Amino acid sequence: MLLSQIVWDMSPTIIKIGSFEVRWYGLLFAMGFLIGFQIMSRIFKIEHKSEDDLDKLLLTMILSIVLGARIGHYVFYEGQHFAENPGGFIWDMLIPPYSGLASHGAAFGVLIGLFIFKNRNKSYDYLWLTDRIVIVSALGGAFIRFGNFMNSEIVGKASDLPWAVIFKKNFEFEQVPRHPAQLYESISCLILFVIIYALYNKWKDKTPRGSLTGIFFIWIFTLRFFYEFLKENQEAFEDNMTLNMGQILSIPVVLFGIYVLIKSFKRSSLAQ
């Protein structure tokens, strides 16, 4: 039986005591790290890596993702705040509560964070690290986008599809049936996680260096480019753009992924 429409009226807050509250987004964000840590722990044990290094890697990733995502959102979507408050832009950019986090900034932050970690831990190969981090990053992306759905944010454009959703808690846009764009991205990330984790489990340490990294960036940001056509713009300045900021930023990331994947194939063929 086809659905006529879905009315989504879930509160983004799980529990609130005074000024303290626990929100679905924060819980799902944390779950991504917790489950990801368990997966990385299994990988480190399989490949005989130090668990002490894993703890340091976790801290590096938390800082890299949060800082990268926040700085990215500020630079790409909130640049006008610098002109309005040049003396306090660092405070606005880095101190919670945040007005937004950018996945492109998070990706860039992770690449930098892994580079720093590799330079401090010389025994690790950079692409070995990225190939394993993208596994848990895909799962984390699924949790985060589901958190956006629970928050009734990053909504899609109006739609008459049977699974379109009316977001009753979103007061920024007209409350009409819309694409559940957050769920599209969440499911896509979950599918990617299953694929690249299965590829890793098949080859383990014989996984061609850079292959999973290339697949991750191509998959995530190609789909992101096309999903943006189904989503409302995040900022008003994007309304007059042919491609919005998310699409513009996705193009070089996809090209980077293609480059990494091609290099991976070349290295693999030369090693045979």
From TrEMBL:
HAMAP family associated with the record: Lgt
Positions with a binding annotation for a 1,2-diacyl-sn-glycero-3-phospho-(1'-sn-glycerol): 145
Regions crossing the membrane: 24-44, 56-77, 97-117, 129-147, 181-200, 212-230, 242-262
Keywords from the UniProt entry: Cell membrane, Membrane, Transferase, Transmembrane, Transmembrane helix
Pathway: Protein modification; lipoprotein biosynthesis (diacylglyceryl transfer)
Membership in a protein family: Belongs to the Lgt family.
Enzyme class: transferase
Source organism of this protein record: Lacihabitans lacunae
Annotated compartments: Cell membrane
Record flagged with keyword Nucleotide-binding: no
Membrane topology: Multi-pass membrane protein
InterPro entries named among the record's database cross-references: Lgt
PROSITE patterns in the cross-refs: LGT
Annotated GO MF terms: phosphatidylglycerol-prolipoprotein diacylglyceryl transferase activity
Record-listed E.C. numbers: 2.5.1.145
UniProt xrefs under Pfam families: LGT
Protein name, per record: Phosphatidylglycerol--prolipoprotein diacylglyceryl transferase
Function comment: Catalyzes the transfer of the diacylglyceryl group from phosphatidylglycerol to the sulfhydryl group of the N-terminal cysteine of a prolipoprotein, the first step in the formation of mature lipoproteins.
